[in-house]
Amino acid sequence: MGAYEDSYRRSLADPDGFWLEAASAISWTRSPIRGLDDSAAPLYRWFSDGELNTSYNALDRHVESGAGERSALIYDSPVTGTTRTFTYAELRDRVAVFAGALRSVGVGKGDRVIVYMPMIPEAVIAMLACARLGAIHSVVFGGFAPKELAARIDDATPKVIVAASCGIEPTRVVEYKPIVDSALELAGHQPDHTILLQRENAPGKLGERDLDWETLISDARPVDPVPVAATDPLYVLYTSGTTGKPKGVVRDNGGHAVALAWSMRAVYDIGPGDVWWTASDVGWVVGHSYIVYAPLLVGATTVLYEGKPVGTPDAGAFWRVISEHHVKALFTAPTALRAIKKVDPDAAELAKYDLGAFSTLFLAGERLDPETYHWAHDKLGVPVVDHWWQTETGWPIAANPRGLEALPTKPGSATVPLPGWNVQILDADGTVLPAGEEGAIAIKLPLPPGALPTLWGDDARYILSYLSQYDGYYLTGDGGYIDADGYIFVMGRTDDVINVAGHRLSTGSMEAVLAAHPAVAECAVIGVHDALKGQLPRGFVVLKAGVEISSEALQAELVAAVRRDIGPVAAFREVSVVDALPKTRSGKILRKTMRGIADGREVQIPSTIEDPTVLDTLRPILRHED
Ligand code: COA
Ligand code: AMP
């Protein structure tokens, strides 16, 4: 039996033994005796008798063990022309002081703090400072509009917001302060303060309740880490569900630290002193887990990159960062490689850089199409590892566990389920399907440490959304199959979640924006295939009878409305005015059928269709043949 199979079997046969052993990689203020706590099943908890501080584990303990002068974080920002390295000692000190600043304005254990910042060191400092105090951070991605930020403020009810005055996109400076102010006008809940980090590209206007980051830290005293229960929340991260209301995924302290530290070694083969780079954003789960927490938990050096794969300044940007900082492994989304490939198909930029230290490319966030896999593999000459996970799971469900055992790769597959994840393919009735048959991907409960224990303040919604479809299973929302060798093929979402440039979005929330327009009687938004971004949203609207508005004017208003209410990240640019939408006899819009036709697939028309002629009329529009 290979090392992978041995670990996998052991993790399912003896989860307590497996994960308590992994827990020894973490420093606890009270070591857990117990692994899984099933007393409130199906709400499972891990290490419920343990106590620790995540910030201590990420920073202090490395300093205490003599690694204080090792690089913890390399900030590389082509958009500002800055590169800065923070040692572990320096980062710990800054985090301790900012934690003191937060405490000085009343933030303590269990309080929520919203962080609305771009990819700058202060975002990492703010997250770790919350962790140090036992406060719960909720980072909101900068590409979201005020209304989305307001929805998160109302759900998380933060004591303070920590924001930067602006983010820098290749084509423009995005002023964050007015976005925060508008969100606060929309929100019912009002935090005590906004702490603003001023950036010179666009300083923000300080209002009555606003505090300046620099002034606040100049008076602050460093604070020590506050021990918390392993089951206390470390953060809440909102993600798109099938409805417009985002889901507040809760992450605990103990299970999270154990699982991430374990994954760094077993999946990514990264340890103390290795330079590791995740090119994502701290606003997404990939950023939380693998820009901030996991690399620091294991004493590695993490690269924080404020730039894009192309245009900052060119398609060689990723290769420059790898070569300049001696990056051992990079983790990004396939869309980033497709962006590079589009501009530099022969990867001519590669010749300018020495990638001697580079050993592995990890990709996730969306399906890795075989063409991109082959391109990356051929050009870079290193293993390219597709792996599959979700905001909810916090770390990969399936991967090629390079640190345990490098398994053969199959293009199109995320390889095998990792220890702790009992993955099954189910049919509509919940019957386990045999190898090769496609169905819903579900995970048998309990989930391993690090996976979400619940949704913020809403156990009922957690159970309803994830655990109620199939008794005893967590529903991933993805469809796919497992082949005869046990390899997982994730084929796409089975719900209304779409993936645009690696960003998870809800078509339901876009439909809500379209439906709110006074001219719109009904609407549908579907995610269609896009060669660069993986998927793009497309809207279809039916006008109310008697409404007089030109298609062009309506289209422009709807595109602007989605940008205003959801944000530029939705990349919503295309909407068609149609006579009718295809429906079943019970009135359900046939979105899946529409998606299939738009993507050029042969689709079977459901026998329950109400009026097939509606689809006939729509077909050329869906296929852009109109
Ligand atoms: N703050 C404010 N606005 C943002 C933003 C942020 N943090 N991130 C993106 N936006 C804006 C962009 O400026 C763009 O606005 P525009 O419509 O005015 O041009 C819009 O949101 C869409 O952005 P994006 O999806 O990033 O598209 P792009 O065309 O600018 O870049 C890629 C395409 C593929 C290069 C880019 O998406 C990328 O690097 N993706 C990497 C994937 C990734 O990080 N995934 C996270 C999970 S692993
Ligand atoms: P997020 O919660 O933003 O990480 O998005 C999770 C979703 O992205 C999953 O449910 C999948 O639909 C998709 N996804 C992530 N990684 C992969 C992958 N390697 N292959 C296929 N789909 C993926």
Walk me through what this model shows.
The chain folds into 2 domains: 3-404 and 412-480, Rossmann fold, CATH 3.40.50; 501-622, GMP Synthetase, Chain A, domain 3 (2-Layer Sandwich). The chain contains 18 helices and 31 strands. A 7-stranded mixed beta sheet has the order 5-4-17-16-18-19-20, with helices on both faces. A 5-stranded parallel beta sheet has the order 7-6-8-11-12, with helices on both faces. A 4-stranded antiparallel beta sheet has the order 23-24-25-26. The radius of gyration is 24 Å and the shape is globular. The relative contact order is 0.10. The mean pLDDT is 97. The site of adenosine monophosphate has 21 residues, from strand 25 and strand 26. Coenzyme A (COA) is lined by residues 118, 142-143, 167, 169, 174, 280-281, 284, 286, 308-310, 333, 335-336, 339, 365, 501-503, 568-569, 571.
- Tell me what portion of residues adopts beta-strand conformation: 15-25%
Name of the CATH homologous superfamily of the largest domain: ANL, N-terminal domain
Topology, number of strands: 31
Q: What is the CATH topology of the largest domain? A: Rossmann fold
Task: Give the radius of gyration.
Answer: 24 Å
Ligand inventory: coenzyme A, adenosine monophosphate
- CATH class value of the largest domain: Alpha Beta
Number of domains: 2
Largest sheet: 7 strands, mixed
CATH architecture of the largest domain: 3-Layer(aba) Sandwich
GO molecular function, one term: propionate-CoA ligase activity
InterPro entries: ACAS_N, AMP-bd_C, AMP-bd_C_sf, AMP-binding_CS, AMP-dep_synth/lig_dom, ANL_N_sf
Organism: Kribbella voronezhensis
Family: Belongs to the ATP-dependent AMP-binding enzyme family.
